[in-house]
User: What shape does this take?
Amino acid sequence: MKLLVLSVVAMGAAAGCNERQKSKQPAVSQPQRVKAASAIVVPESVKGRWKAVKVAVDDKNARKQRVYTIEIGSDFNLPGSDITLTVEDFLPNFVMDGTTLTSQSNDLVNPAAHLMIREHGQQIYRGWLFGLYPNTHAFQHPQYGFTLVDYVSAS
Assistant: This one.
């Protein structure tokens, strides 16, 4: 009987040792999913057809709004600030096809402008402004708000 009890105690101790050894071993890290980068593709039917976009800038401190026309591919220095806006791309009918962002047509069905915003020379935002959905992925700045309000065709 003593032999049976000692055997059970020894097995329990061995199991406890194994549990302690397992807890001391570093956790195996799980692979992280890497988000695939999106590619922006401006179709031939859209290239060169749009000259500029109009962006409304709300100055929250002054409680004023001004609309600025910004040419696609150019920098625009916001007056009275250290902010520069660059309209990188314009898609009149924005769609996502997997990791590709493109335009389904040249019709203004879902207009979107891809902007980069820098303050004091440092990039603080790079993303999209949507004409029909101004609050979708809206950029939050302590003083300014930005909204895509109109589009200027090249012709």
In short: The chain has one helix and ten strands. The radius of gyration is 28 Å.
